[in-house]
Amino acid sequence: MNYYAPFITLLIALLAFHFLFIKCFPQGKRFWKKVDYAWVSLGVIGIFGATFSLNKEYFTALTPWHKKSLELVYAEYMERLENERNYFLDKNGFDYARFTDKEQAKRYIQVGGIYDSLLKMSQNYRDKILVEEEFAYVDSLSRKHNNAFANINDDEHLKRNHELSTMMVDRIVEESNEISVAKEQSRRGTFSWMLLFISPYLFALAIAIRITKVTAELKEIK
User: Fold this and answer.
1) In this predicted model, what pLDDT tens digit does every residue of 85-124 receive, in sequence order?
2) What backbone torsions phi and psi does residue 49 show, to the nearest 5 degrees?
3) DSSP 3-state assignment of 134?
4) pLDDT for position 114
5) How far apart are the first and last CA of the chain?
6) Which of 114, 118, 194, 198 lies 20 to 30 Å (CA to CA) from residue 209?
7) 33, 30, 43, 27: which is closest to 201 by C-alpha?
8) What confidence score (pLDDT) does residue 71 get?
9) Cα-atom radius of gyration of the chain, to the nearest Å?
């Protein structure tokens, strides 16, 4: 849309209204009172159009911020999974041979396998979530993450580790939801697009009518 067009419309409308209703066909007070309905109505419709535009711009501006936040928390989540996997499975982690509680050692090895499985899954889901924005994979990630530790939360150390990882998953879910809402709010129907396009011209006509009315009132005072 040409940004000068509404201003040109305002100037043309001012000249036309002054020529018709001030010079050629002067009107009385009753006519100008009725004119209030016209310019107020045009202004109200124009406000609706401006509101739709602001709403779109607001949510469009939010989307990149939430995408960046999602990328950061997803990277943190993958890094944590990798660290926990290495801690429980690598030789620099627990020395399982020195464990007196063999059941606990077996449980920790099992937890290392769970972190390894979650890490592989998050790697497979990464492009689907961050690039293609198929957020059904976020729900799958959250569900599988929570189910993975359903039977291993009796150990306080494992419970704390799981809670920290779960906080990151919750943030991933939250950011993906925010992106979905922002994208939905920034979409427009035909009516919204029409209001967005014509609202500047409606404002221009409303202002032109109001200025013409003021001119007529000043002329009557003289």
Assistant:
1) 888 877 556 666 666 767 777 777 888 888 899 999 999 9
2) -60, -45
3) coil
4) 86
5) 42
6) 194
7) 43
8) 92
9) 32
* Residue 127 token pair: 């492009």
Other Cβ atoms less than 10 A from the Cβ of 95: the count is 9
Calculate the alpha carbon distances from 200 to 1, 185, 208, 209 in Å: 10, 22, 12, 14
Token pair of 51, please? 């509101």
In tens, the pLDDT along 40-57 reads 888 888 887 777 777 777
Contact 165, 189 (CB under 8 A): no
112-to-89, 105, 120, 164, 179 alpha-carbon distances in Å:
5, 11, 12, 16, 32
**Tokens standing for 138?**
């976020």
Beta-carbon contacts of residue 62 (< 8 Å; ≥ 6 apart): 178, 182
Name every residue whose Cβ is closer than 8 Å to that of residue 147 and which is 6 or more positions away in sequence: none
pLDDT at 37: 86
| Alpha-carbon span 114 to 120, nearest angstrom | 10
Report the alpha-carbon distance of residue 71 to residue 66 in Å, rounded. 9
Answer yes or no: are the C-beta atoms of 142 and 169 closer than 8 Å.
yes
- Ranges of H-type helices in 131-221: 136-148, 156-186, 190-221
| Residue 142: Cβ-neighbour burial (10 angstroms; 0-12, 13-18, 19+) | middle
Contact 172, 141 (CB under 8 A): yes
Both tokens assigned to 149: 């530790």
- The pLDDT score that the predictor gives to residue 97 is 67
Q: What is the dihedral of CA 154, 156, 162, 168, to 10 degrees?
A: 140
